[in-house]
Design a protein that fits this description.
The complex is a heterodimer of chains A (199) and B (88). Chain A is mostly helical and 199 residues long. Chain A contains seven helices and no strands. Residues 1-8 of chain A have low confidence and may be disordered. In chain B, α1 (4-27) packs antiparallel against α2 and α2 runs antiparallel to α3. Classes of the chains: A mainly alpha (199), B mainly alpha (88).
């Protein structure tokens, strides 16, 4: 009797745990996170060994670019989360609008990054100027590649969702694309303070 | 599953945490030593990272093994960077 009541005493409102997207997407995301974890540590390690060089390099960066890009990516992640809610409720127009808005934020990020790079290059600063700029161009450049890939994924999802009826596979594809887009945001959340803000 | 109210709250908290790290970096020099400012900046960043992982990437409601892996990554990476920035 006791064991019966134990078995049936599971709260009715226990949330169901489920894996959004396919397993492979999470393996890719975690591998990518580990790669950038190495980058974060390399940057901090060499910064500690050449603090003046890194401070001088950082002082030439305009944190307004970094901050604007942070706000754009955080907002784009919010849009993508809203898009997922719309996809699961099969609200077609809302899904297009939210994914489109996220894509626009991604485009804004890319444009600002190109302007920022152009300012540096015009000032004669490149990848080979010193260690700070090497890491700055390498890490933000690799992140930009991730962003462009993320934009291509969002565009693919917008095209895929044009079909008349959405299957479970379409929803899972959106979950995978959304998780990847949040990864792009997550990596920038760490890169921005490391490169622009540390004192 | 995303709930609109939760998603919006998370976004607002993310923006506020960004403002907090910016304050520590640019305007908090009268109140914070560089080491303390760096600790605030880094902890704010990983607080944001954890919010994105749990709520936007939906790891909070994913199988517990995935959540443990990500929680461990957040703690270990933040600790490693914090040690190098503030205690070396």
């Amino acid at each position: 009797m006791t064991s019966m009541s134990t078995v049936t005493s599971v709260p009715a409102k226990t949330p169901v745990r489920r894996l959004p997207a396919e397993e492979g997407v999470w393996v890719f995301i975690f591998a990518d996170i580990m790669l950038f974890t190495a980058f974060f540590n390399v940057f901090v390690y060499y910064r500690a060994r050449a603090p003046q060089l890194f401070s001088a390099g950082q002082a030439t960066l305009d944190w307004h670019f970094g901050l604007s890009n942070t706000v754009l990516l955080l907002t784009s992640s919010w849009f993508v989360a809203c898009a997922m809610g719309a996809v699961r409720r099969h609200r077609r127009r809302a899904a297009y609008a939210w994914f489109g808005a996220a894509l626009a934020c991604g485009l804004g990020f890319g444009v600002l990054k190109v302007i920022e790079y152009a300012h540096k290059i015009v000032a004669g600063i490149t990848l080979t100027t010193n260690d700070f700029y090497m890491y700055y161009f390498m890490f933000t450049g690799l992140h930009l590649v991730h962003l462009l890939l993320g934009m291509a994924v969002l565009l693919y999802l917008l095209v895929r969702l044009q079909k008349p009826a959405w299957s479970e596979s379409d929803v899972r594809a959106c979950e995978g694309g959304a998780a990847y887009w949040h990864l792009v945001d997550l990596l920038w959340i760490v890169l921005f303070p490391l490169i622009y803000l540390l004192r | 599953m995303h709930k609109p109210a939760t998603t919006t709250t998370v976004w607002i908290v993310l923006l506020l945490a960004t403002a907090c790290s910016l304050w520590a970096a640019e305007f908090g020099s009268f109140a914070l030593t560089p080491r303390l400012a760096n600790a605030v900046i880094l902890l704010a960043a990983f607080f944001k990272v954890r919010l994105v992982i749990l709520h936007f990437m939906e790891v909070a409601t994913a199988p517990i093994a995935l959540r443990i892996v990500f929680e461990l990554w957040v703690v270990l990476t933040a600790a490693a960077l914090l040690y190098q920035l503030c205690f070396q």
